[in-house]
Amino acid sequence: MLADWHEFYILLGTAAAALVALLFVAASIGAGYLSTERGSPTHTYTSPIVFHYTFVLFLSLAALIPTNTDWSLAGIIGASAAIALVYSFFIFVRVMRGSATDLDDRLGYGASPLAAYAAVLAAAIFIFQRSDIGPPLLAGALILLLLINIRNAWDLTLFFAQRRSADPPRGPRAN
């Protein structure tokens, strides 16, 4: 069912892998800010972005496996979407209870990934039923997840950069 989507999933997987790598660069910018005392915000904001990018990469790779049938692919998509939906729900609750008061942060970190995973789960059901709506719904949900996490990664990078510039420089003093 996804045979005509081969190039799309190659491009999507490549983008997700590159963005995971760039997220490691952003984390290195914020390395001075990340600590055990700030573990909860890290689990609420940074870790989910890595999870979401990895999810997009994983499903892109699964879609490219030539031996998958529609049913096996629907099973892989459905099972991984169900797990991601549960994970995303816990993050949603953390964001809503946390210190994020901006609507764009609540949508970006909380509600949008939850909606994307629900759409991926629906796409798995449609693919299992061999409905023509399954492949474009899956593509749209994965694009939404990728785009919202580009926004989230940018937000996090700005946050780390602002914290870093606010901290006094460390290291040997000049005489």
Q: Indicate the mean pLDDT.
A: 83
Helix content: over 70%
Radius of gyration from the alpha-carbon trace, in angstroms = 18 Å
Oligomeric assembly: single chain
Describe the structure.
The protein is an all-alpha fold and 175 residues long. The chain has one domain. The protein is built from five helices and no strands. It has helices at residues 6-29, 39-64, 70-97, 103-128, 134-166. 29% of the residues are buried.
How do the strands and helices of this protein lay out in sequence?
Layout: H1 6-29, H2 39-64, H3 70-97, H4 103-128, H5 134-166
Keywords:
175 residues; mainly alpha; 5 helices; 78% helix
Summarize the entry for a quick read:
This protein is mostly helical and 175 residues long. The protein has five helices and no strands.
